[in-house]
Design brief:
With 292 residues, the protein is α/β, with parallel strands linked by helices. The protein has a single domain (46-289), classed as 4-Layer Sandwich (Purple Acid Phosphatase, chain A, domain 2). Helices cover 26% and strands 24% of the residues. Strands 4-5-6-7-9-8-10 form a seven-stranded mixed β-sheet, with no helix packed on it. Strand 8 (224-227) and strand 9 (234-238) form a beta hairpin. The relative contact order is 0.18.
Length: 292
């Protein structure tokens, strides 16, 4: 009995310390932004995406983060707005999408950005209604935008055989695409509060590697994380759309910060430039070359 109480206490303390950022290696907001540089080619990108996840509170922090995207679109419109799930807290009530998505991001959508959303674990109760209101092709889908094949997955249904078959077929037919970007809610790799998602690693990651997916985007953990390329695939966690938890480094982590943000992705024929942007400006960037 005493041993059980001690073990339970240890778990509670661990969760409490992680929540408040007191664990060794916990990472908060960056102390200062870093200078980022773009590629030598200063021509306009062929495609531009705004990416962020877990936006669904409708509260001031969420609206301020959405406004970052709106302000960034004023000089150069986005072609796609990628929302990485948990579009509405706490239970996905579809009638609240107006307040959490359609109104805050309305100027970006009105300027022509395609809404490319996926479903998070908080969205599943109203999944079909969200798909309809957001105008998505389905709970999983693919869209070609210029040189990019964008694939949206429902990571609430990793074991679904229909989705698995569709994904493998879609990736097998993707050899004509210059770039392949996959979006889902649950991250394959993460050192954040929720951590890595085992069934995504087991079922989908081998396909990403086999078919040379360039970039995999996920939310779920309320932070920003960029991993070192893993077997040729780049992974980003962008779940800081409305609320935060501390994050940490794993052995595959290149950069991590607990900060409200979005990720600006610009695509050229030979490269993609990803820039993470908070209210204080850009704080992380990676350039993915076309031959990687």
């Amino acid at each position: 009995m005493i041993i059980a109480v001690i073990a339970l206490t240890a778990v509670v303390v661990w969760q409490w310390e992680f929540l408040w950022g007191q664990l060794p290696g916990a990472v908060g907001a960056p102390e200062e932004t870093i200078v980022v540089t773009s590629g030598a080619d200063q021509s306009d990108p062929e495609v531009r995406f705004a990416v962020l996840g877990d936006v669904g509170t409708g509260e001031p922090d969420a609206l301020a983060t959405a406004n970052l995207v709106v302000e960034s679109s004023s000089a150069d419109n986005f072609d796609g707005l990628v929302l990485l799930g948990d579009n509405v807290y706490p239970d996905g009530e579809a009638s609240r999408l107006e307040a959490t998505v359609l109104e805050p991001f309305g100027p970006v959508l009105d300027d022509g950005a395609a809404l490319l959303a996926v479903l998070g674990n908080h969205d599943v109760t109203y999944a079909d209604a969200q798909v309809e209101i957001l105008g998505l092709p389905g709970r999983w889908y693919s869209v070609e935008i210029e040189s990019v094949l964008f694939i949206g997955l429902d990571s609430n249904l990793v074991a679904d055989t229909e989705q698995m078959t569709w994904l493998e077929t879609t990736l097998a037919d993707s050899d004509q695409a210059q770039w392949v970007i996959v979006a889902m809610h649950h991250p394959a790799y993460s050192a954040g509060w929720h951590g890595a998602t085992a069934n995504v690693q087991e079922s989908w990651v081998p396909l990403f590697e086999e078919y040379d997916v360039d970039l995999v985007l996920a939310g779920h953990d309320h932070d920003y994380q960029r991993m070192f390329p893993i077997n040729g695939v780049h992974y980003i966690v962008s779940g800081g759309g409305s609320q935060l938890r501390p994050t940490r480094f794993a052995d595959y982590t290149f950069y991590a910060a607990s900060v409200l943000h979005f990720v600006d992705i610009e695509v050229w024929d030979d490269r993609m430039e990803l820039t993470a942007i908070s209210k204080d400006g850009p704080f992380d960037q990676v350039i993915i070359k076309g031959d990687e």
